[in-house]
Amino acid sequence: MEERLRIKLIVDRNAVKRHIFLPSNIEVWTVVGDECDYLVNEKPLFCTCKDFYYLCLIKKRKRMCYHLKALSLAKRKGKYTTYYFNDEELNLFIKLIFSNLK
Ligand SMILES: [Zn+2]
Description:
binds zinc ion; alpha+beta
């Protein structure tokens, strides 16, 4: 699938999610992928997918994977869902994302 269309589909199906942990206000963003959820971050750029590690960090062939492009588009359009959690849940949340990575 063409990358631009893929990014648009991710945003259109509300697969970009913002998780706010309170009371610290820590913001964690995820993108729902085909097989698992990915942690994404804009500053600094970071994604837990293989493309980001291999193509962006190691090979330096591109700056962003399509999850990061979807994050950027979703923020521009204001098209994402926000979920609220307690700070005590942050550790488990991150743990679950990493243990479900494909
Ligand atoms: Zn990615």
